[in-house]
Amino acid sequence: MITGPVAAIPSMGLAALAPLAGAQTLALPPAGATSFPKLLADGAQKVSDDAFNADRLVHAFALSDAVPVHQVTYALEQAHLSLSLMMQVRNHLVEAYQQMMNMQI
Length: 105
Description:
Elements: H1 18-21, H2 36-63, H3 69-101
Helix pairs in contact: 2-3
């Protein structure tokens, strides 16, 4: 006979596990899904493209008046925001890695 606080817990048997039988399990992503490294590489390429576009517009603006100043300003700000977002993602990834490495096994 079980005594103490454990005795107050009702015995449910295997019937309590029945709702878990229909629970979803982790599955592999579908074949067309984008992988995490691919997402990071695409994001880095987008940041690089934004910086290249802003640089190209600055050069075009310096050489002629064909490019409006607001377009140059917009491209520079977009490149700045893209780079800032990429740095924040990098910081969070580094922090997550450090937390995982500090976990006790």
